[in-house]
Specification:
The complex is a heterodimer of chains A (494) and B (496). By secondary structure, chain A is mostly helical. Chain A is built from 19 helices and two strands. Chain B is an all-alpha fold. In chain B, helix 17 packs parallel to helix 19. The radius of gyration of chain B is 21 Å and the shape is globular. Classes of the chains: A mainly alpha (494), B mainly alpha (496). Chain A: One of its GO terms (cellular component) is endomembrane system. Chain A: Keywords: Membrane, Transmembrane, Transmembrane helix.
């Protein structure tokens, strides 16, 4: 009974938060207080859940019978606990950041913004806790729709057109591929539950499994596997807090989270391994990693560069999951956490630069580190994590993925990882170099920026937020024991 | 016992209400009579559904004249299910009409509107309950004639042309149907549907039966607005008064689909229709064309009513697709979508009616900025639109779920792709509305219309809420549609 309440409250908390936010729209201070309180309450519930799961509990709850024999169901397993904690925890920090950003930039329609934000977190919790594929799919689609008003926040033609791409790719792939995969699974296996070892084993031959896997891998558009990655750079038209929490953490992680879930609990790693039906995925994922990095290398717009970096990093998770070894699954789960922290830091920094200096292009960043030292130090830590260097969290996950690839003698994966590390260094280090070691442009060169010429750091809340996530990026490098234990439980072995 | 007369009362109550309304004359009085009559009718339909679900087919001899001498009323779960949809829609439209027609119909004609609605209701319900082939024709004409006049009541002068167009097409359809019935009468010597079904088995393969099948299929398809016989529908829906559009969209085509299912599965029998002839293949082809071509046409409309009308033609394709699969799963998906689409499209037209009242039209130039000027209505339209697309959590998703799994059960994997691809077209036409409502500035001459009056808003929102409710808890609708499919498939009218 208490377990039921625990699960339900994880969904109800953001939902109630949404309602209160909508009601409190007229009083900005009250509204922001509600967002913060909701986020803190949700996070504490989520931590409690993760602690229980670490202790071996696996609470489950059937919400409603949707169709005869098919229910909407919540069930927690370690991977869901990880995603729940990440999304709710980073929500607190990004709320602080959003308050600073939205006020600093005098954005319009702030109530709608905070309501939809809470809605996206609600969907993320639903995805994290989903007990079967149908429930997950419902929340997955809900997330696409609730984030649409966030992407179109500015209401300009550019926002509308980008949102078309966003919605078109995400809804298109999920309806055309994911839904048909889902239905095929239902018809073939007779269930959509997540089970250790998968539900498809023994029901489908190698070719059939491979075809079904195609539907899932490309149907989960949120994982941005090429060629269905276009929505992510398009989504960068949104205000930066949206890019930070949703398009570096909640939405994209929902994608790779679903991929890991499907590989582990629908197909089953052993089943895929013995059929050999997943052999093609690492090739596509590797291609995604490298080509997205090359695009990032050439992008001058900072957020666009970060977006392509995300496309590339997401495919790390897909690659790791489809290597199918227990240790690579651990790497995939670790990378979900590590990339979330690193990338949110990078986006926070990009937003701070925009708010304080109104700069959006990499080429404008010469010498900015002197004026915004906190921001650029945080940025550098995030960059280290992306490259995968100690002492940043990205190193840990990359270590696991790389050692899995080595022990499997999967040389393609090894090569991709090594090359990608170089490419990552190639597009992040120049920014750090520019910021700290190039002379700032003389005032005569940029008349249009004159009002901001004397800018300093971003508002305090924003600096605080990015410093916190940067510290956590380093913290996870030294203390990742709980995540590791949960990840091992997902992998099922050792 | 009164309940045993329910099959007759289902028709008699609205039929008698019509002349009463004409006597009453006054707008308020006629509204009250109509409201009472629809409420009673809905109660009867609901109780008939409960009865047929538990007891099977109900047979009622009109005036105690037993068939085949007298006219027999015969209703089973399939007929009762559609009757509940029709009666429920009538009950929802009535409270809505009071304000809904005020702006669109002249006040001295209000009583005619209510009387005709009652006749239309009686006709549609009569089709569902009668067990006589010729009686089907009579009720078809009763409902159609009422419909023509109702459409002509529209404020726009083009409503007259639309009504005339429908009159021509509808009459051709009804004529073809009655020719088909005549041929069947020649072959079997009976007009009683149950009798006809048994005797057709003995007649065997004959040109007369084939011709009858062709006449009836084409005739009814005209009334269904099955592509490419849909040309009357967009204008009729677009220019009729708003409550009429909503009522027709949810009921008229659905009842005709029921008739088609009846003839295919109960009278001619699935073997005759699908195995011996190419009917299945033809229906499949037309359904696919319906799913795609009108959906593309819908994308290019500049008027929301017309957009929804073309969307209806497209969605009808889903229903006939389920029929063409010739399986219990397919029929169930059809029955399911019949219900879900009535709910969705009825709800959308009701919401749109309120919008038209406030904004003075359904053209996109009038709807611009609706998200700011009428936020509740705009949001309701979006939710209804999501149900058209088939987003999970809405009724449309359940339909799609069953339709796609029916295709999979049948091994027709390519149909899966077709159904899902067609719903992507729905995304596009629904999103045209979203962009108009949320990304355009409201028209300068009409900056703040305000939400529709409550008497219109509540019924509309109730139906939109229904879209969500039946999308999350579809156990009732699946159970009933399953029964409907079984009744149609395995229970060919006889031997009960």
């Amino acid at each position: 009974m208490t377990e039921d309440i625990q699960l339900i409250s994880l969904l109800l908390t953001p939902l109630v938060g949404m309602l209160l936010l909508a009601l409190a729209g007229r009083w900005p201070n009250l509204r922001e207080a509600i967002t913060l309180i909701t986020a803190v309450v949700l996070f504490s519930e989520s931590i409690q859940l993760a602690v229980d799961v670490l202790g071996g509990a696996r609470p489950g709850l059937t919400l409603i019978e949707m169709l005869p024999g098919l229910t909407l169901r919540l069930a927690v397993e370690p991977l869901g606990a990880v995603f729940s904690v990440i999304s709710s925890g980073l929500w607190i920090i990004s709320t602080l950041y959003s308050i600073g950003y939205m006020r600093g930039n005098k954005e319009k329609k702030q109530t709608r913004f905070f309501v939809c934000f809470a809605g996206a977190i609600f969907a993320a919790q639903g995805i994290a806790l989903a007990g079967n594929m149908l429930t997950l799919f419902m929340f997955y689609e809900a997330m696409t729709l609730i984030t649409y008003p966030l992407v179109t926040h500015h209401g300009t033609d550019h926002a509308r057109n980008s949102a078309r791409t966003y919605l078109g790719v995400l809804l298109g792939t999920s309806i055309a591929f994911l839904l048909s995969g889902l239905l095929a699974t239902w018809v073939i296996a007779g269930t959509l539950d997540f089970r250790q070892g998968g539900i498809l084993a023994g029901h489908l031959g190698a070719t059939g499994t491979a075809l079904l896997l195609v539907l899932y891998m490309f149907g989960i558009g949120k994982a941005a596997l090429m060629p269905f990655h276009r929505w992510l750079p398009a989504a960068m038209v949104a205000p930066t807090p949206v890019s930070a929490l949703l398009h570096a953490v909640a939405v994209v992680k929902a994608g790779v989270f679903t991929i890991v879930k499907v590989i582990v609990y629908i197909f089953g790693t052993d089943n895929l391994m013995s059929l050999g039906s997943a052999d093609w995925v690492p090739v596509i994922a590797g291609f995604s990693i490298l080509s997205a990095s090359i695009v990032a290398l050439r992008a001058d717009n900072l957020k666009r560069r970060l977006a392509y970096s995300t496309v590339s990093q997401l495919s790390y998770v897909t690659l790791a999951a489809t290597l199918l070894a227990p240790i690579s699954i651990v790497g995939a789960v670790m990378h979900i956490a590590a990339h979330a922290l690193g990338k949110i830091t990078l986006f926070f920094a990009a937003g701070s630069i925009y708010t304080a200096a109104h700069k959006t292009e990499v080429s404008q960043l010469d010498g900015i580190g002197r004026r915004m030292p906190w921001t650029m130090v945080a940025f550098s830590i995030g960059a280290l994590s992306m490259i995968g260097l100690p002492p940043a969290a990205g190193f840990v996950s990359k270590w696991y993925i790389l050692s899995a690839a080595m022990s499997l003698e999967h040389w393609l994966a090894v090569g991709v990882l090594v090359l990608s590390t170089l490419l990552n260094a190639g597009y992040f280090l120049p920014i750090v170099w520019r910021a700290f070691f190039r002379e700032p442009p003389s005032d005569a060169d940029d008349h249009h920026d004159e009002p901001h010429a004397a800018h300093g750091e971003a508002p305090l809340l924003m600096v605080f937020a990015q410093t916190t996530t940067a510290a956590m990026t380093i913290g996870l490098f030294f203390y990742h024991e709980p995540v590791l234990r949960l990840a091992r439980a997902v992998a099922g072995a050792f | 016992m009164l309940t045993q007369h329910f099959p007759a009362l289902l028709v008699v109550v609205p039929l008698m209400a019509a002349p009463l309304i004409v006597f009453a004359r006054r707008s308020l009085a006629s509204w009250l009579i109509a409201l009472l009559a629809t409420a009673i009718t809905f109660g009867i339909a609901a109780s008939l559904l409960a009865q047929t679900m538990s007891e099977g087919t109900l047979v009622y001899a009109m005036g105690s004249w037993e068939a085949p001498l007298g006219i027999e009323y015969r209703i089973d779960a399939a007929g009762a299910f559609v009757a509940v949809i029709v009666a429920a829609m009538g009950l929802i439209v009535m409270p809505y009409s009071r304000v809904g027609i005020a702006a669109e119909v002249r006040s001295e004609e209000h009583y005619l509107y209510y009387a005709l609605m009652m006749l239309c209701l009686a006709g549609l319900l009569g089709i569902l309950v009668t067990g006589d082939a010729f009686n089907v024709f009579v009720f078809l004409e009763v409902s159609s004639l009422a419909t023509y006049v109702l459409i002509a009541m529209g404020r726009d002068r083009r409503a007259l042309v639309a009504a005339y167009q429908y009159l021509l097409m509808g009459t051709i359809g009804a004529t073809l149907y009655v020719v088909g019935v005549g041929l069947l009468y020649l072959e079997t010597g009976t007009l009683n549907l149950a009798d006809m079904a048994t005797r057709l088995v003995d007649v065997g393969d004959s040109r007369g039966v084939l011709a009858a099948l062709a006449f009836i299929t084409v005739g009814i398809s005209l009334k269904i607005a099955l592509f490419p016989l849909h040309l009357w529908l967009p204008n009729a829906y677009a220019y009729a008064p708003s409550p009429v559009s909503a009522f027709l969209a949810a009921t008229a085509t659905k009842v005709s689909i029921y008739v088609l299912m009846r003839y295919f599965f109960t009278i001619f029998g699935a073997t005759e229709v699908f195995d011996a002839r190419a009917t299945g293949a033809i229906l499949l082809g037309l359904s696919l064309a319906a799913m795609f071509i009108p959906a593309v046409v819908a994308i290019f409309q500049h008027d929301m009513k017309r957009l929804l009308a073309y969307s209806s033609v497209s969605q009808i394709g889903y229903i006939t697709l389920g029929i063409s699969l010739d399986s219990v799963e397919g029929l169930m998906a059809s029955a399911m979508h019949l219900f879900n689409h009535a709910l969705t499209k009825g709800g959308l037209f009701l919401v749109l009616g309120g919008v038209v009242l406030r904004c003075g039209g359904a053209g996109f130039d009038r709807l611009a900025g609706l998200g700011h000027t009428m936020p509740v209505a705009a949001f309701a339209m979006v939710v209804g639109g999501l149900s058209l697309i088939g987003v999970p959590g809405t009724a449309g998703f359940i339909s799609k779920w069953y339709l796609v799994s029916a295709a999979m059960h049948d091994g027709q994997w390519w149909l899966v792709g077709a159904v899902l691809a067609s719903s992507l077209l729905a995304v596009i036409y629904v999103w045209r509305f979203v962009e108009v409502a949320y990304f355009r500035a409201p028209p300068a001459d009409h900056p703040a219309p305000g939400e529709a009056p409550l008497s219109m808003q509540l019924p509309a929102l109730a139906m939109i809420a229904g879209c969500v409710y039946f999308g999350i808890d579809a156990t009732w609708s699946s159970e009933v549609s399953m029964r409907v499919a079984e009744v149609l498939m395995y229970n060919p009218g006889v031997g009960q």
